[in-house]
Amino acid sequence: MKPAIKLLNSFQNDIIEAGCDEAGRGCYAGPVFAAAVILPADFYHPLLNDSKQIKASIRLELKEFIRQHAKAYHVAMVDVEEIDAINILKASQKAMHKALDGLKTKPKFIAVDGNYFIPYKKIPHQCIIKGDGIYANIAAASILAKTYRDEYMLRLHEEFPQYKWNANKGYGTAAHRKAIAENGLCRYHRKSFNIVPAQLDLFD
Known about the structure:
single chain; alpha/beta; Nucleotidyltransferase, domain 5; 5-stranded mixed β-sheet; 6 helices; 5 strands; globular; disordered C terminus
């Protein structure tokens, strides 16, 4: 694989900064995960990039590299029941706040992937659209959130193999939608997404 473009280490260079990102926001099933990562100033891996741009084997390699070399990191999740109770946007924000809660080193600044973030404990923050392809700490958070969630979905697949979560990780692929049409929803599906009625006519 060709090396990724070298990412900037952080948005702010002179204070302790956490990068933050989530994974699974658009899925039909399973929790939403988020990670917060504080990297040392000299952190570098030639393949680090937005998790969506990297194949699974490289993501796993990066996961271990990040865990070994980060100054601090934490991964958190919000389950399906809470997603349905408070909506996925609020659940994603809650997962990011939980990830920040778990950091052993407290940041003075937070760099967040995307365009929306609920302020956290009066700590200054900056939202960066596609930040996981620009800043190493956000990219690292995207890798951890994605890999931890994928591993979780593999465990759920063992319980409900008919939905093929080992392949689709809960996203609304054609195979997943077909399985929903044939089997209905299970307790790990997000009922608030109203995914059954709109999809049934696809499999006549």
